[in-house]
Design brief:
Blueprint lengths: L1 H6 L1 H16 L3 H8 L2 H36 L1
């Protein structure tokens, strides 16, 4: 059973994401209405800034790890 889960991990993830999107679809109009408010806009900007910061830190960490690994091989 575990080998099947490992083999189809990406497909299972996509099915789960699709199910979550379908489950949240009825709440979309209320979410769009909330985003039109000042508070919603600020929360959206905060989430976007946090995402950009997180991804840039992840990239910096990977570059640092690659440099350390390259120095150890020399």
């Amino acid at each position: 059973m575990l080998t099947l889960v490992k083999q189809y991990r990406k497909e299972l993830r996509n099915i789960l994401l699709f199910a979550v999107i379908i489950a949240l679809l009825p709440y979309a109009p209320q979410a769009f209405h909330f985003l039109e408010t000042f508070t919603g806009t600020m929360l959206l900007l905060a989430a976007l800034c946090g995402t950009v910061l997180g991804l840039s830190l992840k990239l910096h960490y990977r570059i640092t790890v690659l440099r350390i690994a390259k120095e150890e091989n020399l």
